[in-house]
Every structure is written in C-alpha cells, then in structure tokens.
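Reply to dn_fold:

You asked what the input looked like. This is it:
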Amino acid sequence: MNGKRLIVNADDFGRTPGINRGVAEAHARGIVTSATLMVNYPAAADAARLAKEHPELGVGIHLQLTGGVAPALPADQVPSLVDASGRFPAKPEGLAGASPKEILAELRAQLRRFRELLGRRPTHFDSHHHVHKLPLVEPAVLTLAWETGLPVRGASPETRGRLRREGLLTTDHFIEDFYDAGATLETLVAVLGRIEMGTTELMCHPAVVDEELRTTSSYAEVRSRELAALTHEEPRHTLQAAGIRLMTYAGL
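and this is what came back:
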C-alpha cells in the first residue's frame, strides 16, 4: 500500500463503562480510529451501544483467555482454562496446561457473542495480554482468521511473518511504545513522527478512569493521560504534516 497509513487501536473496549467513554471520546475528539471489544464483561453491551453511535469507529475483537473474568462458555465446558472459581487465570502463565480444543471452543464462543452484541463481524482479531502470540493459542486464532478472512494484529515481527506465510492480513508495523511510562503527549508525537511507509497499528488504552477499573486493574490512572494525549491537537497536526492517513483494519 502506497504512503503512510495508520490504525490507532484502543484495547479493552467493553471492560468498564469508563473505558468505553474514554474510547468513544478518543475517537470522537481525537485520533483513535479503531477499538477491540472484550465481550466477556458486563460493560460489553454498553460498548456495543457506543459503537453503533459511532459507525466510523472500526471494532475488532479483543480475544481473552486471561484477566480473571468468566469465560463465554460455561466453565465446565472449558475446565483447563479456568480456576476453581470458574475464571480465567490473571496472567498468560496460567494457561500452561490449557487444552487447544477448549481454547478454540472458547474463542469461537467469544466471536459468536461479538456478533450477537454488534450485529456484525469484527474488523480484526487481537488479544488481551497478546496471548495470540503464545504457541498454545496461536493455532486457534489462525483458524478463526482462515475461516473469516479477517486480519490479525501482528504484535511482533515473528507473528507478522507467520501471518503472511499463511496468507493472512496484518499490518506492516506495530507500535506499543505509547504505554505506561511512555504514555505521554511527547512520546505520542515522537512516535507519530517516526511512522514508516506502509500500514502501522498504534496500540493505546484510553479511559475515563472509574472505580471498577481502579479496583480490577494495575493499569488504571495512566489511561486518563493516554486519553488527554490522544485528544490533544498536536498529534493531529503531526499526522497532517507527515502526510499520514488514518484508517481502520477494514481498509487492509
């Protein structure tokens, strides 16, 4: 693809009402073009409502096998994926003994739930904690991509290489520098100034920080800083000066 094209994707859409508000605001007033929906949280319905109010926002699915939430399938159908309380492990290390068959079944169920919530299929696939890079999880995500023809986040050069060898769509580049200590206006402007030719995804996590987020995530307050940077006028000016066109995964 000629020129410089950029997808600015907000992860964790649907996790809390405050995240949903932040994503919608970062799209309506800022440079966010895309979001990925976590379907297993109660706030996913609120996110779906907001997505319908903002039809130009591309919405993919943030596949989830970690984070301490209940699966889309009944827990007794995916026993290798859940703990004694019927919830996913907090971190990817907890998936060491997971069944590939149960992984695929659960991700299929999440895809069905996405379609039920939004009435359409997602623009693309990515995952919470980048679990789709794990050798145990990757085959299931590749299967979904083969079946649907949808793009997948190329969260590493190795992942992008495998996706391309399989004939699957992904971006040319992926940027995750705008995160944590790097979630500043200065970092965002610098990153945008270094965008390369081709297609790039920039990952972000904007939110209006609410109590649910504060009590369930170690990455909370900084999300408000992300929101402020993404809606500042300077990033948009940087994009315009560099001739970078914003897009969604639907444009790949």
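The mean pLDDT is 97.
Hope that clears it up.
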